[in-house]
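re: ur question from yesterday

yeah so i grabbed the chain u mentioned. its 257 aa long if i counted rite. heres the sequnce exactly as i have it in my notes:
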Amino acid sequence: MRRDCQHRREGPRGQAEYFGRGRIGAIRMDPSTAESSRPSWFCDIEDFEPFSPPVPAKPDGVFYEDIPQNLWRNGVRLLDQATFDAIVAAAGSAVQAAAPTPLGPIEVDNLIVPRGRAGSRAGASGVSYRKFTRAKVVGDWAELRVLEFLQGLGGCAELVHRAAKGETPGWDIDYRDPAGVLHRVEVKGTVGAAFTTLDLTANELRAARQHADAYWIFLVVNCLTDRPRIHRICNPAARLANGDWTATLALYSVRLS
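ran it thru and got these structure tokens back, copy pasting raw so excuse formatting
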């Protein structure tokens, strides 16, 4: 959540800033604009957490969002996952170098923002954003929470943290269930409260297609806090094949030699 133009008593506007985060809940029309050709809408904000202090929108002279000037106003706009993560990480240094000890990951099934709620990227500028430099910290932390979660489930034999060994088979963790089936787990973490998109490498996608129901994605939100949440997704390749999910090529690796 942002405060684009903080008005001061003496008149001039203050600096744009982000003052908290939360999840969009129920959405309803403003009844006073029901007959208007341009109705307004209200929404509930769930799991709201204020930033203390607020995060400036332009630290070190560089905006987190590279958008046209006329979009700095009251309203709603789409924010990509990496930029959101960077803002949350900067929230008053709320993401500490030594992350708090979690109370234990809790499993839920609602960590994916539905398409209708995620908005559209149409009209986005497509310009680069400030890179979230703590992605590895978040990723490593999320993997440890998943290990704790699997250990707590019981029945997970031969539990191996492949990523910690520097191995890249296309997943981070694997284990055998009581029937002896080997399950592969790819972990995706964010400091945010939900996912709208996630990144899969070509190697991960290939492994997902090869291993089908024995391949999982574990989404971990609220990373680096004491209240992580985990959403388990079996056979992501099937979701892509069925059209439930869509994938676009996002990056080429260019060898400069």
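noticed a couple things. The domain at 135-241 is CATH 3.40.1350 (Trna Endonuclease; Chain: A, domain 1). also The longest strand covers residues 41-56.
anyway ttyl
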